[in-house]
Write a structure and sequence with these properties.
This protein is mostly helical. Helices cover 79% and strands 0% of the residues.
C-alpha cells in the first residue's frame, strides 16, 4: 500500500469522527459508571438502585430512539456535518446540566435530552468516513473510528474514579464543546453534495417502508446488533448485581464497563481487519455472534471466584460483541446516498433502544428464574434473532456507495 491511501486513512474526517465517537462513548456510558454513587447522593436507597437505574437507562435509550430519527433524517436532508455539529452541542450541554441534578425526575429529563444528542454522532461519523474514503480503505477507516472511540469508556471510568460524579459530567460536556472547534476543519461528503445538487428526495424515512426488500434489509440491519446491547445494557451495566448473585465481592460497575469496552475496542479492530482479510462482512458478524454466545455462557455459569476473573470475562464479553463498527458500516453500505445517513444513524440507536424491551423482559424472567437464568433466557433470545436477521441483509464488502434509493 502506498503512502497516498495511508494518508487518506488518517485524514481529518476520520480523525475528527474518531475523536467525536470517543467523546460520545464517554458521555453515553458515564451514567452506567456513576449510576450507583449519583443515585445514592440523591437519596435513593440501596434496594432501589437496580430498579431506578433500569428506569433511567430506559429513559436515556428512549432519547436515543427519538434522536436517531431526528439526526438521521437531518443528515440526509441537510448534510452529515450539520448532524455532527448539532448533536455534539446538544449532548455536551445536557451532560453539563446532568452535573447539577438533585432528584431522579430531573435526572430522567436530562438523560433523555442527552440521549437525543448522543444519537447523532456515530451514524453521521461512519457515513461521512464511508463516503470520503476509497472503497478499499472503507473498512479500515470505520474500524479506526470505532477502536479510538470505544476507548472513551476507559477515560470515563478513570475520571469517575478521580473526581465526583458531578465533575465527571462537567468534564464530558467540556470535552464535547472543545471538539466543536476541531469540527470546523471537516469538509462535507462529496457524494452527498453531488446528490444534493441533483435535487433528489433525501431523508424520507417512509421510503424504508414502501418497498418490502428495503424494509426487510432495514430490520435485518437492526436485529443483528441485539446481542451487543444485551451485553452492554444488562450484563455489564448491572454487573455489581450479577457479581453479588455469584457471591463475588468488590465489583465496580465502572471497572466492568472499562474492561468490556477495552475488549470491544479489541474486537472491533479484529472484526474490521478480519472482514477485510476474508472479504466478507456477513461471515465475520456470524463468527462474532457465535463468540458472544460462548462468552455469555461463561459469564453466567462458569464458576468465577474472584474479581479479576470476573473482569477478564467482561473483557471477553466485550471482544465477542466487537462487531459494533462492522454492524454500523453494514447498515451504511446497504442503502443509497439519499437514505444512508437516515439508516446509519437510526439503526444503532434503534438497537440501543431495544434495551427498553430487553430490560423489561429481564425483569419478567428474573422474577421466575432468578437473575442468572433470567439473563440467560433473554440473551439466548437475542442471539437467535441476530442469527436469523443476518440472513436478511446483503453482503456489502467492496460495494460502490455512489447509488440512490428509488421512490
Amino acid at each position: 500500500m502506498n503512502s497516498h491511501p495511508l494518508k487518506q486513512l488518517v485524514s481529518i474526517p476520520v480523525i475528527v469522527a474518531a475523536l467525536g465517537y470517543f467523546v460520545d462513548i464517554y458521555d453515553l456510558l458515564l451514567f452506567s459508571i456513576v449510576r450507583r454513587p449519583s443515585l445514592l447522593a440523591m437519596g435513593v436507597g440501596p434496594e432501589e438502585l437496580l430498579s431506578k437505574g433500569e428506569f433511567l437507562l430506559q429513559v436515556q435509550m428512549a432519547g436515543l430512539l427519538v434522536g436517531g430519527l431526528i439526526w438521521g433524517i437531518m443528515g440526509d436532508k441537510r448534510g452529515r456535518l450539520s448532524v455532527l455539529f448539532g448533536s455534539i452541542l446538544l449532548y455536551s450541554l445536557a451532560n453539563i446540566a446532568n452535573g447539577f441534578v438533585t432528584t431522579v425526575p430531573q435526572y430522567a429529563v436530562l438523560r433523555f435530552i442527552a440521549g437525543i444528542g448522543l444519537a447523532g454522532e456515530l451514524g453521521a461519523g461512519i457515513t461521512l468516513v464511508s463516503e470520503t474514503l476509497p472503497t478499499a480503505l472503507r473498512g479500515y477507516g470505520t474500524t479506526l473510528v470505532a477502536t479510538v472511540g470505544l476507548m472513551g469508556a476507559v477515560l470515563a471510568n478513570y475520571v469517575a474514579k478521580t473526581f465526583d460524579w458531578q465533575v465527571a459530567y462537567f468534564i464530558g460536556g467540556g470535552l464535547g464543546l472543545l471538539l466543536l472547534i476541531a469540527r470546523v476543519s471537516v469538509f462535507e461528503s462529496g457524494i452527498f453534495l453531488k446528490v444534493k445538487e441533483q435535487g433528489v428526495t433525501r431523508g424520507n424515512f417512509l421510503q424504508l417502508f414502501n418497498q418490502r426488500q428495503r424494509f426487510v434489509k432495514f430490520i435485518g440491519c437492526i436485529l443483528i446488533g441485539l446481542p451487543i446491547w444485551f451485553v452492554i445494557g444488562i450484563l455489564v451495566t448491572f454487573s455489581p448485581e450479577f457479581a453479588e448473585a455469584m457471591h463475588i465481592t468488590g465489583i465496580v460497575a465502572g471497572d466492568a464497563v472499562m474492561y468490556s469496552y477495552i475488549g470491544l475496542a479489541a474486537g472491533d479492530m479484529s472484526s474490521g481487519l478480519l472482514s477485510q482479510l476474508i472479504r466478507s462482512r456477513r461471515k465475520t458478524v456470524f463468527m462474532f455472534i457465535l463468540l458472544t454466545l460462548v462468552f455469555i455462557l461463561v459469564y453466567l455459569y462458569f464458576p468465577l471466584s474472584s474479581a479479576l476473573q470476573f473482569y477478564i470475562v467482561c473483557f471477553l464479553l466485550g471482544f465477542g460483541i466487537g462487531y459494533w463498527a462492522l454492524f454500523v458500516t453494514i447498515a451504511a453500505e446497504q442503502f443509497g446516498t439519499n437514505l444512508r445517513s437516515t439508516v446509519a444513524t437510526t439503526v444503532p440507536n434503534f438497537i440501543r433502544g431495544t434495551v427498553i424491551p430487553l430490560t423489561l423482559l429481564f425483569q419478567l424472567f428474573r422474577k421466575d428464574f432468578g437473575i442468572l437464568t433470567g439473563a440467560l433466557v433473554v440473551g439466548l433470545i437475542t442471539i437467535i434473532i441476530a442469527f436469523w436477521a443476518l440472513r436478511l441483509i446483503d453482503e456489502t464488502f467492496g460495494r460502490d456507495l455512489n447509488f440512490l434509493e428509488e421512490d
